[in-house]
Amino acid sequence: MTSDGSIRGQVAVVTGGGRGIGAAIAHKLAAMGAVSVICGRNESLLRQTGGEITKGGAKCEPIPCDVTDLRSVEALAARVEKDFGRTDILVNNAGIGGPGGPLHQMPPDAWDQVMNTNLRGAFYCIRAFAPMMIRSGGGHIINISSLAGKNALPNGATYSASKWALNGLSYSVAEELRAHNIRVSVVCPGSVHTEFSPHPGKSPEKMLQPSDVAHAVSMLVTQAPQSFASEILLRPTQKP
Question: Would residue 118 count as lying in a domain?
């Protein structure tokens, strides 16, 4: 952070940044003065979101990347280091819900798809970006998890398992990297209202909004340097 606690001039990489929660986080960090590097598999969505961010005078760089592909993630990290020289903030937001239903009826390829995106993707990104942060003297890694990683989720066991694992990964990596001045945190929101993830039977007005998750991320990256919050559990004020 700068002396006034802002993140002006920092470089923030947001996975799954083309829409929903990721786009809201990218908007927020760019508005705070960071360069938001957004990545995802849908190039047209990335360009659209990037255009919306830069239209207001903020800085955004859309770069296609598939977090389930190690070479794609390594190429992203190499480009960020070449173009910007550093990464100060990494937000592992990319994630999918997967099909519902009892676990014993779950196709193995559906299990693999959820785990590869929600868990392996975070591993690949930490593997690729943490060395850059170490070289530059520190940074923030924020993993977007879910309250499903804290509570039972019948008919959503695969998604729940991926988020429980992401939480465990986050706590462990935080201990590994804190000596390098890298603060690793996890944000666990409840159901978030986005146009891409409808929640039948819930009131959209009472649900968490993507901007709520973005606000939690903004709090994490502007903490005083002598401490860090290892997790944020985010719930709506009223039950939707």
Answer: yes
Q: For the segment 89-148, what is each residue's pLDDT rounded down to a tens digit?
A: 999 999 999 889 999 999 999 999 999 999 999 999 999 999 999 999 999 999 999 999
Residue 171 annotated in active site: no
The whole-angstrom separation of Cα 129 and Cα 88 is 9
Instruction: Check residue 120 and report its DSSP letter.
Output: I
Token pair 């502007």 is found at 222
Which of 175, 152, 240, 158 minimizes the C-alpha distance to 202? 240
Domain tally, the chain: 1
CATH at 101: 3.40.50.720
- Burial letters 128-142, b for 16+ CB under 10 A, else e: bbbebbeebeebbbb
131 part of a folded domain: yes
* Residue that is written with structure tokens 């695969």 in the block: 158
Q: Say which of 124, 129, 159, 164 is annotated catalytic.
A: 159
Instruction: Tell me the C-alpha distance between 177 and 162, whole Å.
Output: 22
